[in-house]
Design goal:
The protein is α/β, with parallel strands linked by helices and 271 residues long. 40% of the residues lie in helices and 18% in strands. The protein has a single domain, classed as Rossmann fold (3-Layer(aba) Sandwich), CATH 3.40.50.1820. The strands form 2 sheets. An 8-stranded mixed beta sheet has the order 2-3-6-4-7-8-9-10, sandwiched between helices. Strands 1-5 form a two-stranded parallel ribbon.
């Protein structure tokens, strides 16, 4: 009996150690590619390089093609893929509003130098927000892990953010990670926590939330907790049959409803 207990305890400690050492590899799943490949993908999608003040490419952009834009959307994508993968947002958003789109690339994703971590992603988001025009409203679209980045920006810079859309969000990554690893002391080991609930407490603008009813990665209860705890203007949509990677495929009506919701509660987009 004692030998068995020691063995089980040893295996438990080993599992916790593996989690502690490899947690970022478990959270972040970047797609990387040579610059020439990414540029070819971007060109095929109609995206242009988005650069910071020093000329470093920090993502991709698509200007509104048929006149002056009435707002800017900063997109913070999820934990997999890379920024150029999110070109599908261009037609669905620019079809319903005069918006310039900016897709942030994270350190360690695409061909951007660095390694992904909460600190690195939030610093990249801060820089990206600073690169946007100050005379136009800024809207945030954050998906999955990127919802934590968007919530941070909204809470940290509420005066700059005119509206937010969070797709498949969670209230706190610690809670979500504990759900997936119920037997391990996740809250003691996790380095990157993305406390979206705390960040959004500093924001009072419109927050739209889209949930996937069959989400196997971020179960809907975590997004509902975030939504229920938010005190500002809010609106909830749910795709009952959608899984985590299917929820982004929404009809034009949905995107128009999000824009209308933003219009009702913030300045910009033609008001």
């Amino acid at each position: 009996m004692l030998t068995a207990l020691v063995t089980v305890a040893g295996l438990y400690v080993l599992a916790a150690a593996v989690l502690a050492l490899s947690q970022r590899q478990m959270i972040y799943h970047p797609t990387t590619a040579p610059t020439r490949v990414l540029e070819a993908w971007a060109q095929a999608a109609g995206l242009l390089p988005w650069r910071n003040a020093t000329g470093q490419r920090i993502g991709w952009m698509h200007r509104y093609p048929t006149g002056p834009a009435q707002g800017q959307v900063l997109i913070t994508h999820g934990n997999a893929g890379c920024a150029v993968d999110r070109a599908f947002y261009v037609p669905v958003l620019q079809r319903v509003a005069a918006l310039d789109l900016f897709i942030l690339e994270y350190p360690g994703y695409g061909d951007r130098p660095g390694s992904p971590s909460e600190r690195a992603l939030l610093a990249a988001a801060e820089e990206a927000l600073g690169c946007l025009a100050s005379d136009q409203p800024v809207y945030l679209l954050g998906e999955s892990l990127g919802s934590g980045v968007a919530a941070y920006l909204a809470g940290r810079h509420p005066e700059r953010i005119a509206g937010v859309l969070l797709i498949a969000p969670f209230d706190n990554l610690t809670h979500l990670a504990q759900h997936h690893m119920p037997l391990l002391p996740v809250r003691w080991l996790l380095k990157d926590r993305y406390p979206s609930d705390r960040h959004l407490a500093g924001y009072r603008g419109p927050v739209a939330v889209l949930l996937a009813g069959r989400d196997e990665v971020v179960p809907t209860r975590f997004g509902r907790r975030l939504y229920d705890g938010y005190a500002g203007p809010k609106k909830l949509w749910e795709s009952p049959q959608a899984r985590h990677n299917e929820v982004y495929d929404q009809p034009a009506r949905f995107w128009g409803e999000v824009i209308s919701f933003w219009r009702q509660h913030s300045v910009g987009l033609g008001q």
